[in-house]
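Listing S7. Sequence submitted for prediction.
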Amino acid sequence: MSHYSEQFLKQNPLAVLGVLRDLQKGDVPLRISWASSQFISKILDASPDALIIDLGSQEQENRAALRAENISVMAETQGAKVEFVLPRLEPSVFQGLPAFTSSLPANLWFIQRREYFRISAPLHPAYFCKAKMPNKKEIRFRLFDLSLGGMGALLDTPKPDGLVEGMRFSQIELDMGGFGRFWFDAQLIAISERKVVDGKNETITTPRLSFRFLNVGPAAERELQRIIFSLEREARERANKVL
């Protein structure tokens, strides 16, 4: 993790604890990863004495986590990215239920940034969105990439008349297949073109739309983060199959 500037490194125990407690209060998803696997979790409690983390959904991954060392933990909120390393996880009980415990990390990276991590959407299955223009005409587009801050999309038809940068949309429907359907207010911040050369060496030009999400609440943000983590995991699994 040393590829970040030292200005983002928090080493004061009170500062580290403050960041962890903010993650706990926000119920922010954590990606817990080590050499052989990963799972999604959350912080149940953070005190000067211990960090309590929820179990993952798969028993096999939970058992593997107890054998792992140098466990990477990453969380992403709308305002910042947090990363730290835990030497080990130990079995514990929190409020009568099994959990993981660890000492607090000696330091953590807290990277405040303007840009959000973006994950490219898979071509198959494609995820589609629907929005209504001011004249009530419905437009349909394909999800291209996704972040906590917004999304990129591709039109399969020419750009509709009246579609202009700066336009705001109420309750765009994002159909994520098995992940469910979501509705977001968004602003169209850019219209551009995506050019791809096909198998016949012909250039295919597709209108590309860039949206910024508006008024995303904590619950919707958590769902977005889980989807982004899942898409990232699927992309890594596809890449490993190719290798």
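Caption to Listing S7: primary sequence and predicted structure tokens for the chain studied. The radius of gyration is 21 Å. Helices lie at 13-25, 59-67, 218-242.
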